[in-house]
Amino acid sequence: MDPHSLVSRAALHRSRGSRFTDLRARIALLAKGNDEAQNRGVYMSVELLGVVIAAFAVLVTLGIGMFAGFAWIVRRIDRVDDKLSARIDGVEDELSARIHGVEVGLSEVKSELTEVKIAIARFEGPRPHLVVAR
After folding, report:
1. 56, 57, 60 from 64: Cα distances, Å
2. pLDDT (tens place) for every residue of the chain, 134 residues total
3. pLDDT of res. 2
4. N-terminal to C-terminal alpha carbon distance within the chain
């Protein structure tokens, strides 16, 4: 009989009671290379579990990095928007003042134009009639 076939899981389990009993059974079980005993009932290898955990960690790290980058861009855009709004407000005030000055100038020109029209009308005299009275 093969010594490996005599060693069973139950025999190994019973041998755990004493430290030095049935050492031969333990060695035989380890030499046999029982995959079920190695993995303890897990259906994936340790390497595959490590790869899955590492891939998950990489995805979490990339997600956190993308979120942080997006937050940084949003803050930067807000700062640029604040600066641009202040600059536009300054330009708007300046343009309003200039437009008001142009409106005042146009009203002065309009009043002067009216005065010039009156002066020309006085200089020319009354308009001739189409039908002359005899």
Report:
1. 12, 11, 6
2. 445 444 555 555 555 555 555 676 666 666 555 555 555 665 777 888 899 999 999 999 999 999 999 999 999 999 999 999 989 988 888 999 899 989 998 988 888 888 888 888 888 777 777 777 76
3. 45
4. 160
* 106 conformational bin, left if phi > 0, alpha if psi -120 to 50, beta if neither: alpha
Contact present, 7 and 32 (Cβ < 8 Å)? yes
Q: How many residues are present in the chain? A: 134
Q: DSSP states of the chain as a string? A: --HHHH--HHHHHHGGGSSSTTHHHHHHHHHHT-HHHHHTT-SS-HHHHHHHHHHHHHHHHHHHHHHHHHHHHHHHHHHHHHHHHHHHHHHHHHHHHHHHHHHHHHHHHHHHHHHHHHHHHHHH-SPPPSS---
User: What CA–CA distance (Å, rounded) separates 67 from 60?
Assistant: 11
Instruction: Look at the alpha carbons of 39, 43, 48, 49 in this order and tell me if their dihedral is positive or negative.
Output: negative
